[in-house]
Design a protein that fits this description.
Radius of gyration: 12 Å
Strand order of the largest sheet: 1-5-4-2-3
Shape: globular
Order of helices and strands: EHEHEHEHEH
Largest sheet: 5 strands, parallel
Length: about 110
Amino acid sequence: MVKEISGDILKSWIDSKKSLTIIDARDPEDYKKGHIAEAVSLLNMDVEKRSSEVKKFIQPVVVYSNDENCPASGYVAEKIEKLGLNEVYNYNPSYKDWIEKGYPVVK
């Protein structure tokens, strides 16, 4: 079962240099405008096509999308978990929360 994670915990993992994979499930245009550092762009419709790559992701895997109203992070997280990864987190309220907290992004 996909677990939930807060922005504060994700930020602490990043700050402590914890090995993990961060997935940005937003539209590639949104990703280009700004994303969490080290995040990999992966759309819901591409998870199966990129399954060999996904299966090699370092766990934990944290997935985010636009905001609490965007279901993309949940869909992607569930698909990743079905591919056999067992430490998968859905960061929802997602990117909007990250920005509101003033956390850094890459543009």
